[in-house]
Amino acid sequence: MTGVAASDGPDASARPNGTPRRRGRPPRTESAGTRDRILAAAREEFSERGYEKTSVRGIAKSAGVDSALVHHYFGTKEQVFEAAVEVAFAPALKARDTVLDGPLDEVGERMTRMILGLWENPVTRAPLLAIVRSAVNNETAAGVFRRLIASQLLRRIAGQLDLPDAELRAELAAAQLVGIAMIRYVIKVEPLASADPEEIVRRVAPVVQGHLTRP
Question: Which of 203, 212, 122, 126 shows the shortest CA–CA distance to 167?
């Protein structure tokens, strides 16, 4: 397999379709799990160090690969972060359709259970924490997070509402749940941090429902 020549700066060349070429020289024999290992290392680095203090070199060291290989698979640090966000949000995007599938007068409860379920699960909570911490402290990371949430989640939910100000309704509902997640899982303020998830659903779902469907 012929590799792409490694470079310290951006590759000025482009493919015929105009997209930039990936940088870095991949090894002749690549493990099928190399990309996943880099992403796992990236999530850990972003979680521990935040976006600004994380570097491609640090991600590569944590993954046990050369920096050029990180560039080859993902490009810039921003692109690595975006890929890590997409992987972390994959369960939410899969669960999105279950939120939309069912009676409209129960969508608030389904949405509340979906978001809380992702945060309650230790497997999905860890990457979410990494993303949120980076997005709170860095505008570049926040922009990546915002684009994904808006395009992949909120607009899809808004599209199913068929009500005035549908996008604003979806964003208000999301803001309610993101605020709860921040206080419960990131800042860990009591008594919310230790409250029973079912009690949270009971109290919050009607509020979320109101944001989504109240006239």
Answer: 212
